[in-house]
UniProtKB/TrEMBL annotation:
Amino-acid positions noted as binding Zn(2+) in the UniProt annotation, renumbered to this chain: H77, H79, H247, D321
Keyword Zinc: yes
Pfam families the record matches: Amidohydro_1
Catalytic activities: 4-imidazolone-5-propanoate + H2O = N-formimidoyl-L-glutamate
Cofactor note as given: Binds 1 zinc or iron ion per subunit.
Record's keyword terms, sorted: Cytoplasm, Histidine metabolism, Hydrolase, Iron, Metal-binding, Zinc
Annotated InterPro entries: Amidohydro-rel (IPR006680), HutI (IPR005920), Metal-dep_hydrolase_composite (IPR011059), Metal_Hydrolase (IPR032466)
Metabolic or biological pathway: Amino-acid degradation; L-histidine degradation into L-glutamate; N-formimidoyl-L-glutamate from L-histidine: step 3/3
Cofactor(s) essential for the protein: Zn(2+); Fe(3+)
One example GO MF annotation: iron ion binding
Keyword Zinc: yes
Protein name (Swiss-Prot/TrEMBL): Imidazolonepropionase
Domain Amidohydrolase-related as annotated: residue spans: 68-408
Length: 415
């Protein structure tokens, strides 16, 4: 089955070859063809080009006059399996408490842990599937989902099984990450060493054996997990064949980046507080920096110094961090807008950070992230637009008209 999309006002993120993540000034260019066609054969991109070369032998055709096409977003950092909400903490922060003060009172991550442990797998699946459907309608085609609100083997496995069920039931590509070291659960209070041992000796072996996780994560932060504890977790994960993606430098810089680069982890995520030394370290390694600007927006913390990272010639990825505490939104259009408005990325840089570069942060670059022959036909069609800049410019509007995943049109409220 071949479908021709014709009269595309502008077809974005065309890459005949993409062999490496875009770095520094390479991110300035977002290659496109104006007045273009795109041919989808079954679930794959078969051809594209200028309208004058459009084929005439397709089974179906879709008129895209006035509208634009972009490969779907790749959201490489989310926590969308969670129970309930943290609306009261949101109001508490408005009234002056900090994220840390709320945690010290037993709230924050531990609030979500208590709720998740008391919620059935079916209910977790139901709530997460509604979130996932919303993300798809907002243009996301690949998503990473973390555990980390269970913090016991049993509750972490429950979360990971929910993620597996989402993988089975939705056309969106999903990668699962085990985040056992998110906070110390109440039963290990005062015995953090014991909890790290539990993660390394019991949880990682069992979870690796189950095949339910693609990656391992930890929250390296003052008051959460130390650099040495996290190194131990990363090394254990490596022994069990799992790569790591690590939360670092959200509030303080304590050497997490040095350690992650030394251990060659896949990505370091957050980076709201980054020293010049951290940037020098990142330049020496292959670890991918991931910024989460809508987290900065929601809890009013500094934004990742994205321009500094790009000026240093580093690659950059942006992701949503969708979670109940620090970012209760996974709208990647808003992530792109916030990247432009607050981190001063150009729209071209922001779209590159949310598509092709993000594919590298989830190791899906062979199948996703650009309009390339042979990649999955996962893309969104905009409403009629003057230019693609409208997406970050009209930051509160839904400008996505339809979403195709693996060549199939999805339900979108935008239509
Ligand atoms: N900071 C660590 N983890 C999440 C927040 C978790 C929560 O507050 O529930 C984050 O990435 O922001
Ligand atoms: Zn996170």
């Amino acid at each position: 089955m071949k479908t021709l999309f014709y009269n595309i006002k502008e077809l974005f993120q065309i890459r005949e070859n993409n062999n490496a993540i875009l770095k520094g000034s390479e991110m300035k260019e977002l290659p496109s063809i104006k007045n273009a066609f795109l041919v989808v054969e079954n679930d794959l991109i078969a051809d594209y080009g200028s309208m004058e070369n459009a084929p005439t032998n397709c089974d179906e055709s879709v008129d895209v006059s006035g509208k634009m096409i972009m490969p779907t977003y790749i959201d490489s950092h989310t926590h969308i399996v969670y129970a309930g909400n943290r609306e009261q903490e949101f109001v508490d922060r408005i009234n002056g408490l900090t994220y840390d003060e709320i945690y010290q009172r037993g709230g924050g991550i531990l609030n979500s842990v208590e709720k998740l442990r008391n919620t059935s797998e079916d209910e977790l699946y139901h709530d997460a599937s509604l979130r996932l459907e919303e993300l798809i309608s907002q243009g996301t085609g690949v998503v990473e989902i973390k555990s980390g609100y269970g913090l016991s083997l049993e509750a972490e496995l429950k979360m990971l099984r929910v993620i597996k069920k989402l993988k089975e039931n939705y056309p969106v590509k999903i990668k699962a990450t085990f985040l056992g070291a998110h906070a110390v659960p109440p039963e290990f209070k005062g015995n953090q060493v014991g909890f790290v041992d539990e993660i390394c000796q019991k949880m990682i072996p069992e979870i690796a054996q189950s095949g339910l996780a693609d990656y391992v994560d930890a929250f390296v932060e003052t008051g959460y997990f130390t650099v040495d504890e996290t190194r131990k977790i990363i090394k254990t994960a490596t022994q069990f064949g799992l790569k790591s993606k690590i939360h670092v430098n959200q509030f303080t810089t304590i050497g997490g980046i040095d350690m992650c680069v030394e251990e060659n982890v896949l990505s370091v995520d957050h980076l709201e507080v980054v020293s010049d030394q951290d940037i020098e370290t990142l330049k020496k390694g292959k670890t991918i920096p991931v910024a989460l600007p809508t987290c900065s927006y929601f809890i009013s913390i500094p934004y990742t110094p994205a321009r500094k990272l790009l000026n240093a010639g580093l690659p950059l990825v942006v992701a949503s961090d969708y979670n109940p505490g620090t970012t209760p939104s996974g709208n990647m259009n808003f992530v792109v807008a916030t990247s432009c408005i607050k981190m001063k990325l150009t729209p071209e840089e922001a779209f590159n950070a949310a598509t092709i570069n993000a594919a590298y942060a989830l190791e899906v670059e062979k199948g996703y992230g650009s309009i390339t022959k042979g990649k999955k036909a996962s893309f969104f069609i905009t409403k009629p637009l003057h230019s693609i800049y409208a997406i970050p410019y009209n930051f509160g509007s839904n400008l996505i008209e339809s979403v195709y995943l693996n060549g199939k049109k999805q339900n979108t409220p935008g239509e």
